[in-house]
């Protein structure tokens, strides 16, 4: 299979060319060369970009994602790091479930004021405690 032009990679990956150039700058991908002024990539870059996208969706930083590749560019996933991220996501899912349920309750609560609702007050206390621990929610 022949190399792909940067615009073709961008189209297939659903990313702007500027993101590809940024990933290149960060050492996450590398062009095989140039045709004129346009970067060319091996078709395997699409799988690498898919792994980067999966890592970003899971909440890994670009530095963490970079460590998921062996020096030859093949995926070399640290199972311990994956397990730790899965545990982190599981905890976050539980937190979000509690938040969802609390918001649904607050939306349907018959109390005259949300501040009179014990469930809503618990939600406020929990949010305040999270803020005091430096939690930003993202």
Short description:
59% of the residues lie in helices and 7% in strands.
Task: Tell me what the structure shows.
This protein is mainly alpha-helical. Helices cover 59% and strands 7% of the residues. It has helices spanning 6-13, 17-25, 45-58, 62-66, 79-108, 118-132, and strands at 4-5, 33-35, 38-41. Strands 1-3-2 form a three-stranded antiparallel sheet. It starts with a strand and ends in a 6-residue tail after the last helix. The model has no long low-confidence stretch (mean pLDDT 88).
The largest pleated sheet is described as: 3 strands, antiparallel
Content-based structural category: mainly alpha
- Oligomerization: single chain
Helix content bin? 55-70%
Q: Unreliable runs, pLDDT <50, ≥5 residues?
A: none
The span between the termini is 40 Å
Overall 3D form: elongated
| Secondary-structure element string | EHHEEHHHH
With strands numbered from the N-terminus, the spatial order across the biggest sheet is 1-3-2
Radius of gyration using CA atoms only: 22 Å
Report the total helices.
Answer: 6
Count of strand segments: 3
Average of per-residue pLDDT values: 88
β-strand percent reads 5-15%
């Amino acid at each position: 299979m022949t190399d792909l032009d940067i615009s073709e990679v961008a189209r297939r990956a659903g990313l702007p060319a500027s993101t590809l150039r940024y990933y290149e700058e960060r050492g996450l991908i590398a062009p095989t060369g140039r045709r004129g002024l346009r970067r060319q990539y091996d078709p395997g870059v699409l799988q690498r970009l898919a792994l980067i996208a999966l890592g970003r969706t899971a909440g890994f930083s670009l530095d963490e994602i970079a460590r998921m590749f062996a020096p030859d560019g093949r995926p070399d996933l640290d199972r311990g790091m994956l397990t730790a991220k899965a545990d982190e996501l599981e905890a976050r899912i539980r937190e979000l479930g509690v938040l969802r349920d609390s918001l649904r309750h607050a939306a349907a609560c018959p109390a005259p004021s949300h501040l009179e609702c014990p469930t809503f007050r618990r939600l406020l206390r929990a949010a305040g405690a999270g803020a005091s621990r430096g939690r930003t929610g993202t």
